[in-house]
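U., I forgot to send this yesterday:
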Amino acid sequence: MPGGRLLLATSLLLISLAARSTGQVYLETLPIAHPAIQYLQTRPDDPVSRLSAELERGTITLDFRADGTGYLASVLRHLGVTTDSQGLVFSKTSSQAAKISPRNPRAIYFADDVAVGFVPGGEVLELAARDARQGVSFYTLDNQSQARPALTRREACLRCHYGPATGGVPGMFVSSVFPSATGTPYAGGAIVTDHRTPFGDRWGGWYVNGRHGEARHRGNAVAPNPARPDVLETVGAQNLPNLAGRIDPKRYLGPVSDIVALLTFEHQTQMTNLITRLGWEARIAHHDSRSAAITPALQSGIDALVAYMLFADEAPLGDPVEGVSSFTRTFAERGPRDHKGRSLREFDLRTRLFRYPLSYMVYDAAFDALPGPILDQVYRRLFDVLTGKDDNSRAFARLTRADRSSILEILKETKSTLPAYWRGAP
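Result:
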């Protein structure tokens, strides 16, 4: 199947099945051309657009490596993305699907507001970056040596990255599929995953390195029998410390696909989509009604965002998890920290992802850019939950008194834009 047809088929597969994921709820796709949004008509302000502007002005240059990685290392450095965030996906779920296979997976690297995709032997680097108001935009960079490398915004990426899989707005997502021996995804069983997805349903079509005890996932495995495309060969697929014999590590910037990085990226993708959607919904509602009132639909979005931020529906890990790269350490080192040295980026990895279960994306510029009345309500809802005033105790039953107290204390010291009433909270 030609690359364009394969991309379209893959996008239809994932979009049609995305809403089946555990924890996922189908949301109506919001119009990108709405006068309050004008997604394609607005020049994004994101890390990649800023890098593009500097390249155009000639204030920075990109270094090219002749080892097959091209501009990758230089792009990551300029975008502030660490190589230990590397995740490797071998399912053919990219515009460069023809070059992707279990022997030649695509690498994904990410920071809080940007992700970069690289396929050994591929023609382009794939980039996705988050604008605080407009959400995620998509770009490519030709990965052959050239006098003036340039980044190009790509509308075609929306075929996969704008729909149910991304909460009805342009965004990113992690999919789990049943891949064949060549990496082709089976049409049944494809889901979108995040921290709400049961451990056993995650990472089909991905390589996963790390220790996770007796818990089982879909990673590192293919379905070798075309007559049984949803049955994975899982022998030797769990608790892999490395990818020896599976890939050529010299073709990548790192030799592994770290389980902790994958867990973090899953959480971050849908968190970003929820923030984007709530901002778009508020702007559309205000434009159409000329009112800043919090409608039932907006209140539902606020509740969904707060629940996700506080990991209300987080699926337990089952057994303790341990990564194999430096990601667990370097991610936590980013802070910020309170006077006791605590940070929302600290991992737990025993039964849950983070030690203090409030998303580190609370510090993100996109969170702060939510329309004023919406942000006020999000803060009020968070405050009520953390101080025990929330009357929906069942939804947040997993938050212990110690969890709530620690999160409240950390935020009061590290989030300077908190409403004044937070400062006096016990």
